[in-house]
Structure formats: structure tokens, C-alpha cells
Amino acid sequence: MLVVDDDPSFRYWARALLEASGYDVVDDASDGESGLAEAARLRPQVVLIDIQLPDMSGFEVARRLSETEWRPAVVLISGRGRYQYGDRVRNCGALGFIAKEHLSEDAIVAVVRGRGERRA
Fold first, then answer.
1. Which of 48, 36, 59, 51 is nearest to 4 (CA)?
2. 3-class SS at 50?
3. Can you give the C-alpha Rg of the chain in angstroms?
4. Taking the mean position of all CA atoms in its chain, how far away is CA 120?
5. Using an 8 Å Cβ cutoff, are 92 and 44 in contact?
6. Chain-wide mean pLDDT for the chain?
7. What is the pLDDT of residues 28-86, one digit of tens each?
8. Is CATH 3.40.50.300 what the domain over 2-112 is classified as, yes or no?
9. What pLDDT does residue 83 have?
10. Crossing angle between the packed helical segments 105-112 and 8-20, to the nearest 10 degrees
11. What is the distance between the terminal CA atoms of the chain, rounded to a whole angstrom?
């Protein structure tokens, strides 16, 4: 798994949470361009992307990843609620959305396995 978020504290917390849940977090990135570069280099199965990044939106990162040959499972995250983004989550190639406050192993598994988005 690759974590892309501009907040170093969140990246640290997310990595610790995910690794404690058994995920192999291969790296993290602080912006969209470095996230795309790391994804191309490492080809993770799952990429967790913050919607609000300093250089481009998480929607753009998700769209670009959905066009790659290896097409990782993309899960968008945000400190804001899903309702604020409308159909953009569904239309960018991401599997779903999880509010940061609800990030957990169960939430990621639910989105990746297609049992639906976490709405909050």
C-alpha cells in the first residue's frame, strides 16, 4: 500500500495503523507528483490518497492511476465528508472514499472488496 497525504503526522499515523492491521505499507508521499512517481516505481496494489494535495487534487492522481497498465485499487480519503465531493469520487477511477476519522482496516477492506464506500 502507498499513502499519499500532505500531512506528515497523518502519514505516520496511517502507516502505523495500517501496518498494525497487517498491511504492507511500501512508502508514502506528500504530494500528487511524488505519489504518482512512487506508484509507478513500486506498483502497489492499493493507494490511499488524500483529496486535497498541494500540487493537484487527489481526484487527478486517482484518474491518472486508473489509466496505468497495473491499475491499483485507489481509495480516496479526506478530513471532510463524502457528501462535499458529489460524484467526483465515483468519476475519477477510485474505488471509494473513507473519511479520515473512519480510516480502519475494516473500512479499507470494505471499499477494496467492493462492498461499498464509507460515507461520512
1. 48
2. strand
3. 13
4. 16
5. no
6. 90
7. 999 999 999 999 999 999 999 999 999 999 999 999 999 999 999 999 999 876 667 77
8. no
9. 65
10. 80
11. 23
